[in-house]
């Protein structure tokens, strides 16, 4: 389904009508100038819902839209490489490297696997003199594409944080942007995801598990349907529903760290990705702005923990086998967000009998950096 300025209220999906939830649209140009009405709008969106569209069609935002298109071309070049070339990079740390399809347990029950491959590039790493990136990217001269994408995404997220600080009347060290400095270690990451068609991955590898993000803010680009959210608060009993791609806009999600830093005032967005069209390749780009590793806050369990500790614990929960995920505190996967009832299961489309298996090879053993 193509992006639409006026999306439908429901769509047909897996034999039933599913809601398409609305999002407020925040203007980046107005945020950049600290327009009081736009500052109030973005603050209310984060306090009440935890998500919004960010309109980037002004003169300053257009640079990011261009960077996003160049990153998309880079993704096509990288993911079209043989599996051996991609696995050569491997997973260097939790926020740097390549993950093949099916590396993580899926959202939809025992025996499922997530249906995407992912390339992650650390902001801290890209600032180094000789950053670790796949050879195919370094040798092709695409390093500048990653630098531009990370730089513009980082600036946009800092503008949003600054507006939220202003809206909450924060000053000095208490302002959110002051715990997200570029020169301090953090797990801030640009993640590039390629969701493969169901007939390629097979019926047991679908989507991306329901979760809230480890980040403070997530800046997400995807021109294709598949993202679902659960509205928070009094809407908690309502089902997961799609959000429509909107031309010239990014999705922005509040993540756990910003929720905790706001004293639980902000909502962390519960979302997942499902195969809207099982026959298509789907691409998305997510910039996860995360707090400095030594930033302290009270988490959803009432513990006083660092941002680095929360990241490592939640990343482990994401990658644990299904039986351990089921035993993990629900507050870990969902960042303490409450929801009434359970989601309807997602029916995995049956793979054709003659479908070729996904070419997956055992990747190199790596250690996850703390």
TrEMBL record:
Residue stretches making up the Fe2OG dioxygenase domain: 185-291
Ranges in coiled-coil conformation: none
TM ranges: none
GO biological process, one term: small molecule biosynthetic process
Pfam family, one: 2OG-FeII_Oxy
KW Cell cycle (keyword) present: no
InterPro entries, per the entry: DIOX_N (IPR026992), IPNS-like_FE2OG_OXY (IPR044861), IPNS-like_sf (IPR027443), Iron_ascorbate_oxido_reductase (IPR050231), Oxoglu/Fe-dep_dioxygenase_dom (IPR005123)
MF GO annotations: metal ion binding; oxidoreductase activity
SUPFAM superfamilies in the cross-refs: Clavaminate synthase-like
Gene3D superfamilies: B-lactam Antibiotic, Isopenicillin N Synthase, Chain
Family as reported in the entry's similarity comment: Belongs to the iron/ascorbate-dependent oxidoreductase family.
Name the UniProt record assigns to this protein: Fe2OG dioxygenase domain-containing protein
Organism: Podospora didyma
